[in-house]
Amino acid sequence: MLTTRFTEALGIEHPIVQGGMMWVGRAELAAAVSEAGGLGIITALTQPTPADLVAEIERARKLTDKPIGVNLTILPSINPPPYDEYRRAIVDAGITIVETAGSSPEPHMEMFHEHGVKVIHKCTSVRHALKAEKVGVTAVSIDGFECAGHPGEDDIPGLVLIPAAADALTIPFIASGGFADGRGLAAALALGADGVNMGTRFMCTTESPIDRVVKERIVEASELDTNLIFRPLRNTARVAKNAVSDEVVSILAAGGQFPDVRELVAGARGRKVFERGDTEAGIWSVGLVQGLIRDIPNAGEVVHRTVDEAERILRSRLALFAEPEPVAAGA
After folding, report:
1. Which end of the chain is more exposed for a tag (fewer CB within 10 A), N or C?
2. Quick one: pLDDT band at residue 324, thresholds 50, 70, 90?
């Protein structure tokens, strides 16, 4: 049993989280992770309305009675989703764990605290983690440069970011970006984290709702097969390397602006990748850790073997430093 401050704070068995992922964090996957003792997370904005989110939560509860979280990503937008309505739906559905990302969770904290909701805030720097701690989140999920999606603009990898966060924070935190197995979990714990968040690894499981062709692409790909788009716009995102993301990088490197790539990066095109299995239909998020993923197991197996491997590694390393047995006199 790898009991940590994070597992105790959230009431879960294993220090493993399946973070919220657009179009991926649905009931079957979240429930499978939670049922195995981790924390599965449903992505709120994958659901078209707050009512649909409530229905998705109910579907998950028919699959497990263990804790399930909901991700609410808050980003500036010309036509923003009705965040307050989604927040109300989360509370009314009885969810007690929320993962926030994007903008500061501060505007939402009063209501969440009022209803006993524990907040895990995702961030990409120690300074943002400290701000989240200050506004009262229960825990932080800190993303290193290796992660899929938005790694921030500091380019700090986990090997430095995790111990830096451990030195600065007093609340529990989990490490995200670059984790796929027990080696990563053991390393994160050794660096001071209280658990790990795995996204790409859980994308590539049988319960993940994306097309199997995409999962097979992840298995085949290496750690070299991603692109960093939007770098000149200081809104960096790590996505799969394909013809579309290559074109986006080329246009922006030549001085183009967002309107020049808007059609290429449209979310509707990315959704087609996951739903139709056409990996060249648009841009889609994946992490460097795809280079360590070599199979498509069920989500519960990922949880159990990650914990088992981490325990074996930690015990074997500790054994190297065990006190030697005293030599009997006359031996």
Report:
1. C
2. low
